[in-house]
Amino acid sequence: MHPKDTPEFYVPENVYIIGTMNDIDRSVDTFDFAMRRRFRFLNIDPKDCSSMLGELKEKTAEANMRMNRLNKAIIEHPELNENYQIGPAYFLELATLSPEQLWQDYLEPLLKEYLRGTVDEDQAIERFHEAYEGVASEN
Questions:
Q1: Residue 116 CA, distance from chain mean position
Q2: Is 63 exposed, middle or buried (0-12, 13-18, 19+ CB in 10 A)?
Q3: Mind listing the pLDDT tens digit for each residue in 67-113?
Q4: What is the rounded distance in angstroms from the CA atom of residue 57 to the CA atom of residue 123?
Q5: Rounded distance, CA 106 to CA 113, Å?
Q6: Which of 13, 40, 67, 121 has most Cβ atoms within 10 angstroms of its Cβ?
Q7: How far is it, in rounded angstroms, from Cα 10 to Cα 17?
């Protein structure tokens, strides 16, 4: 940032730039298109920012494994893809919640929303839960 009286570009103090975009939500297509014409977009995958989970201390490895297993199952689902992956911010809740509470209160409702109206919604949720718990990788 530069003072207002310099010829450099500056952002006024009352302007906030929020740099997130949910490209799954089709209701923002026109806004998305307008933004993409004006700014550079970088795709950030959950693994790119998994270092956030370091805040969990002794729970970091477990959170990483759960996130990676679940995201692998999401990517492999025929009606979803890498854009539906769940990032580490959700898994930071493990600081205060049990893994099952995280699943019930945050992850399962989100995944049900992703799958609403699909033929195998219940079976897919069960497969995602098994991946999250590590059951699917043992078979």
A1: 18
A2: buried
A3: 999 999 999 999 999 989 999 999 999 999 999 999 999 999 999 99
A4: 33
A5: 11
A6: 67
A7: 12
Q: What is the mean pLDDT of residues 23-33?
A: 68
Three-state SS string across 7-26, please? CCCCCCCCCCCCCCCCCCCH
Q: Nearest to residue 83, comparing CAs of 106, 114, 112, 104?
A: 114
Report how far residue 12's alpha carbon sits from residue 1's, in angstroms, rounded to the nearest whole number: 9
Confidence at residue 18, expressed as pLDDT on a 0 to 100 scale = 65
CB contact set of 130 (below 8 Å; sequence gap of 6+): 73, 136
Rounded distance between C-alpha atoms, residue 66 and residue 71, angstroms: 8
Residues in the chain: 139
Residue with tokens 């302007």: 15
